[in-house]
Amino acid sequence: MPELDTIRGLAILGVLLYHGLYWNVNLSNFPSLERIILTGMWAGRMGVDLFFVLSGFLITGILLDSRNRQDYYRRFYARRALRILPAYLLILAILAVAKVTPLSFVLLSLIYLSNLTPLFGIPIAYPVLWSLAVEEHFYFLVPAAVRILRNKTLLWICFAIVILTPLSRLVTFYLTRHNGFVSFVCNQYTWNCLDGLSCGAAVALLLREYRPEKKTVWLVSSLLVVVAAIIWAVGLPFGILTTQTPVGAALQVVPWHFTFTAMLCIFLLIGTGPWRAFVRISSLRFLGYISYGLYLVHLLVYQGLDHAFAHFSSYSPKNPSFSFLVLRVLSAGIISIGLAFLSRKYFEEWFLRLKNRWS
Description:
Elements (H helix, E strand, L loop, with lengths): L2 H19 L10 H9 L6 H20 L5 H26 L5 H8 L18 H20 L2 H26 L18 H16 L3 H22 L10 H6 L2 H18 L10 H8 L1 H22 L9 H31 L2 H4 L1
C-alpha cells in the first residue's frame, strides 16, 4: 500500500515544520502576517496523532492476518524489534554520550518509559521519544488481545477506548490543575493517548470483518469529517484550541483523530482506483520511507544548529527573525533527511533483511 508512505510523509513533514516554526518560538516578536503563518504551524504537532492512527491500522492488520500462525508472538516481536530497536538504541547512545539529556531519562527510555518520566520527577528531555513509548506499550497489549478475542469484541473495545480516553484526559486535567497550569505532557501518558491508535485499529477490524463496499467507506469517511467539524465548531467557544481548559484537554485531539481516520480510508480508496497517482506522491513517499529515522534525529539536528548558529553568528534562538527561522528549517531538513536516508539505507536495512531469517 504505497499510499500509506504518502501519509507517513505528510505526518513527518508536519512534525518537522512544527518543531522548526512553532515549538519554543516566541510569536509575540513577529508582525501579524508572519505570526499567523507561524501559528498555523501548530497543526504540525498533530502529525504524531496521524502516525498513531496509521500505526494502529497497520499493526492491528498485521496481527489479524497472522493470528493463526504457530509462531505468532515470536514472529511479531522479532520483526518489531528488528525494525525499531537498532535506530532507537543508536539515538539513545548519542543522547547519552553527547550528554544532551540526563542519564536518568536515557535509562528510563531504554525500557520505553519516555512518556512517563514526569511521574518520576524527570522531564521528557528529548520530546520525540514519548510517542515511541506509547506505541511500544500498544505493541505489548494488542497481540494478546488479537490472539484471544474475536473481531467484534475487539471492535467494541476500540469504540470504548475512543470514548473513555477523552474522559481520562478530563480527569487528569482536574487532578493536575491545582498548580495553576496543566502541562501538555499529561496528555502524553499512555492511558491518555490511546484513542488515535484505537481509531486506526478499528479501521483494520472493520475492513476485515465486514468487507464494506467502497461507497460505504466513502460515506463513513464523510460522516467522520462532518462529526470532526461539528466538534470543532461547538468546542471553539469552550477553548478546544488550548489544553488549559477542560474541553481542550479532553477533546482537542478528537476531531483530528476522526479526520485522520477518514483520511486513511480515503487514501486506501483512491489508492485502489484510477486516481492512485494523487495519493502516491514520490517526494512524500520518500519522506515516509525514511520517516522513522527522520523522526528520531530531526530534533537533535535542530538543537545542534541552534548551538552552531549561536556560537558562530549573531543569531539568538530566543529572538530569531522569520527569514532565519525559514533558513533554520531548510538547513535542518536537508541535514536530517540526509542522515535519515543514510541510516535507513546503510544501517536499518541491514537489520530489516534479517526479518525473514529470524521470523
